């Protein structure tokens, strides 16, 4: 035991033990001031019930303090819990000590001369102050002792036995100088000390669990859960108090190539350094979160111009660079700034506007800060409305697959179908399909849409009535969905659920979206191909896939984009491209489909080139499954 050094007689551990032995021998004389066993048992039960139902830590610790004071009528109890992040003691549980005492103790930093509790937290050993007016540990708190009638004190640490960390401090204050008779208090108080430790452990566990739920595991920044918890309150407070608030949407420029070049371990190290510099520069933020991927959102209690200058300072911080593999890596970001006004007064809309401004900054080449204006606000509102309509459409089955035939040009008969997303909701019908897809990909709704289309196709293929007449079905899958963990398992589960033959299913991936030929996307494609599904590379010629993709990825089919087919026979470059893609496909052992055939002239030109598969309005538009079944029956029996 670490006893305080003062001029009063020092109680050694041996003296304490001897005092306890003597006092136990005459315990009957002390029973009048000790709590009865029944009362102690009931009190312990109340405390454990509070712990079991996750009551607020202050409520639980206050119950323990009151129980301890019931046992020792001349003692005042104080239970503080330790905040490791701030390295301070927080006011926890008190019995008869008033709230003004708790206010004074709140935020105490552990130290060598911080009374018995502060010093106990610092040394993590019990502290006895025999006479606080003569103890140097209390030199700075004489006024406090006079005000609250404290003459002696005993404090002992609450330690988490699982990892040895400090949980808090249990303190006992007396109106008289400490005497050897108090030794029995120390022994008896171990029951209350144990209860306080249990409560503090539970509180620490809850804090850790909540932190994991509301913070990004990689950077330690807040996550979307924390945004949902606190964002609206921050915005509402700013509006109510008419104080400045600027929301910054920060999107790192071209960070994906950094991951591809250096690998995940090293790029994560760089990413964490970026997050650290962001925290340091934007330390005034009311809220700073990792929004998703390489995007961040900061709620800054600043006018727009000051917020912009702060973000420019952050850009300068990043311009210093990051040392990686003997390279000074330069990182920039695109940023959008937005604030509340009479038309935009909710958190979601402000973030959407800031996001829209960040998109414009990206279009300017990045390394730019753009302030949202009315045009961007209107565009942002439109995107939000589309998202809401998509949510409603998914819930009401207003998004359905329609089937367009893929034809064998040699036989003139259908070879299969492509399941295309069609909207039956009148409001959504007015939205351009590319806008719908863009919003769906940004919001993650594309995953639900893609799975809905695949499930419907599986159900049609496995239908005992065979509405698609044994033909194959192509279903579009986005890169975002392909990269999502669990995609393979979900697709295979659908095949198993409906009993669909994977050999009749083909997944189409748009070339213009393809970015990852070596990572998670490739692994997913290989898994799906090995499971028996066919794979098609859609819109070939419009994107930036390298020929290496055709060699290294398990595609079975490439589809020539309709923009080239439209010009067939009219544009020499379009003719040359179609011929080249056809030759390339045949050389790689791939099937080649010409998309967007609308006229007999286009069909003849493609057939003369040697194309064996085609698709387009020349034969039929996309149809509901029952209409498609009837179409096959009417035309090809």
Find the CATH superfamily of the largest domain: EAL domain
Largest sheet: 8 strands, mixed, barrel
- How many helices? The count is 24
- CATH structural fold name of the largest domain: TIM Barrel
Question: What is the distance, rounded to the nearest whole angstrom, between the alpha carbons of the first and last residues?
Answer: 96 Å
Q: Residue-averaged pLDDT, rounded?
A: 84
Tell me the total number of β-strands.
Answer: 20
Description:
Helices cover 48% and strands 19% of the residues. With 637 residues, the protein is an alpha/beta fold. The chain has 3 domains: 13-211, Beta-Lactamase; 216-372, Reverse transcriptase/Diguanylate cyclase domain (Alpha-Beta Plaits); 398-636, EAL domain (TIM Barrel, Alpha-Beta Barrel). β11 (333-338), α12 and β12 (368-371) form a beta-alpha-beta unit. α2 runs antiparallel to α3 (57-71), α15 crosses α16 (445-462) and α18 packs parallel to α19. The chain is elongated and about 110 Å long.
